[in-house]
Amino acid sequence: MNLNPLPDFLVQQNKGYYCRYGDFYLDPLEPVETAVVSHAHADHARPGHRLIYTTAATSVFMQTRYTRQRKESYRVYGFSEHFKLKEVDLYFIPAGHILGSAQIMMIYQGVKYLYTGDFKMQEDSTCEPIEIEQADVLITETTFANPETKHPDPVEEIKKLNTTQINILLGCYTLGKAQRLTALINAHCPDKEVLVHHGILPFHRIYDREGFQQLTYLPYNRQAMKVPDQNKIYLVPPFTFSSYMRAKNVIRAFASGWKRLQHQNGIELLISDHVDWDDLLSFIEQVRPQEIWTIHGDGRHLKDYLSGSIAVKELR
């Protein structure tokens, strides 16, 4: 059976990526009637929608962050649980990005369109591991889609924190990254004590309740961090990290896949929650799409690399 993907199945609009065949948006940036949300990071999950289709963990994170959003708005589905929006059949697949993160499979007229959201293939004990299914059209993020980008082993990166007993000010994203770092530190830096900024604490507690393992940490203690050589690591969100440029008696580090965020830090910590070039190619090989539509990044390297084998276009 020859299935032809529709070039306008998903189009980019000001509010987000819109599917007119199901009359819904994927990860819309402005309030819409019907939103299908891949995960709870703020650049994908916004408030104000009348209906929000998402996973259980994502709904909990959104309710924690967006307290004015009506709880009745959420339509929660488990992974692999099908639901229908008009004539489009949808279901969620674990994306391995953060707890509750999902790829979104959309099936219309027999054609499978797979939206990755943000995803990673590295091991992460704090969230559901990625699952890979074949699709006709792959709609993928290309955050690090560059042959020069190779993410190092996160275990070897986190072990860098063992090279000093001086307290460490560790900048990280509040949701997902902070919890992954805590688990890595607990496992591979056993002499280190994790202190958590008040802005991160609510999400640690949700991970404790909804996630896959108990994290070991304490709320931030100002006095404890003032004493040098105490083997403490203070996890702080990016804004707080930037405001502590002149912090004394600490070594600065920021956990990210972006090398530009490593400048002026005492320890380089390249830990990313996205796929690098090799993992993206491996993922594509397993999905086996006829076409690839790129979003969230620069897809030019991918288009050049796959020229003559798979059609690649930027979604517009």
From TrEMBL:
Describe the location of the Zn-dependent metallo-hydrolase RNA specificity domain by residue ranges: 271-305
Task: Give any GO molecular function from the UniProt entry.
Answer: RNA endonuclease activity
The keyword Nucleotide-binding is assigned to this record: no
**Residue span, Metallo-beta-lactamase domain:** 3-163
**Entry superkingdom:** Bacteria
Q: Which residue windows are transmembrane per the record?
A: none
Q: What Pfam families does its record include?
A: Lactamase_B_2, RMMBL
Q: Mind listing the UniProt keywords for this protein, alphabetically?
A: Exonuclease, Hydrolase, Nuclease
**What PANTHER family is this protein classified in?**
BLL1145 PROTEIN, CLEAVAGE AND POLYADENYLATION SPECIFICITY FACTOR FAMILY MEMBER
* Designated name of the protein: Exonuclease
Q: Which species is listed as the source?
A: Sphingobacterium hungaricum
